[in-house]
Amino acid sequence: MNALEQAETKVANMEKKLAHFMNQTEKDMGMLEVENEETLTEIETLQGEFTNMKEETAKQATSLEGLDDRMGNLEVTWPSGSYCILANGDCPSGFTRDDGHIRAAYTYSDDVKYLKPAQFGDSSIQCHGPCGTRADHWLADLHITSCCK
Question: Apex CA 118: angle with CA 117 and CA 124, to 5°?
Fold first, then answer.
């Protein structure tokens, strides 16, 4: 085979390869177009769902505002009789605030089995001073603030 024939063979082989790559590229482009269409459809669906969620959220926010307005207009009615409740800020209408305390009461131990500090609205139970600082005795404070009628 002479140089011209070799060159023609190489050109023919390259043309076959080019045709194959062109064919494969067309197939790939077709698949990409299909995937692109599917993606666009999915985006449109998600946008619709997002719009629906925004609308639903706006409706629920409006509903909550209405409930908040109605709750603000409700009057609390306390049962009749004489009783006290623990205070937490101002007393309700018709109640009188009162408080009392025990300070520096001896306790067996400052262990939580015997003294567990806690806050109940404006009332509290706690160590008298820093807990566990005295080895010979432990002291507790009890503060009760109530609203009575």
Answer: 100
Strand partners, 120: 123
DSSP 40-79: HHHHHHHHHHHHHHHHHHHHHHHHHHHHHHHHHHPPP-PP
**Paired sense of beta strands 84-86 and 123-127, if any:** unpaired
**Closest of 137, 131, 140 to residue 102, by C-alpha:** 140
**Distance of alpha carbon 123 from the chain centroid:** 30
Structure confidence at residue 115 (pLDDT) = 86
From the first residue on, what is the mean pLDDT of each consecutive set of 10 residues in the chain (149 residues)? 89 93 93 95 96 94 86 83 96 95 86 87 91 75 97
Q: How many CB atoms lie within 10 A of CB 4?
A: 8
Tell me the two tokens of residue 23: 């064919």
Cα(12)–Cα(37) distance, rounded to whole angstroms? 37
Contact 102, 115 (CB under 8 A): no
| Count of C-beta atoms within a 10 Å radius of residue 134 | 13
